[in-house]
Amino acid sequence: MSDAMVTKVGTALRHVAMIRQEYSQRAQGTNSPQQQQALSDQAKNEMVKAIGDQGLSVQQYQQAIQMAQNDDTLKRRLLSVAESSDK
């Protein structure tokens, strides 16, 4: 995988993780299944946008994540970008 693609996926990974964490905390504060579903839908929309903002399709992102699960070197490269990214 090219360095440019690793940078895009790693940056998207960072944003997706932040969105997941934010919405997970918000969901814990509500008891209503309707509110939880609305938060879940909002989170998904924001994650798709975060991935798209990096010039990636959701399919490209998911494919890169799957590749990283089977390739420790790629996984380390993605995590390195995700942890150092400030975009």
Detailed description of the structure:
This protein is mostly helical and 87 residues long. It has one domain. It contains four helices and no strands. It has helices at 3-28, 33-53, 58-69, 72-84. Helix 1 (3-28) runs antiparallel to helix 2, helix 1 (3-28) crosses helix 4 (72-84) and helix 3 crosses helix 4. The relative contact order is 0.21.
Order of helices and strands: HHHH
**Helix fraction bin:** over 70%
Percent of residues in beta strands: under 5%
Based on CA atoms alone, the radius of gyration comes out at 14 Å
Mean pLDDT: 93
Poorly predicted runs: none
Task: Estimate the global geometry from the Cα principal axes.
Answer: elongated
What's the N-to-C terminus distance? 21 Å
Please tell me the total number of domains.
1
Helical region count? Answer: 4
Number of distinct beta strands = 0
Helix-strand makeup class = mainly alpha
The largest pleated sheet is described as: none
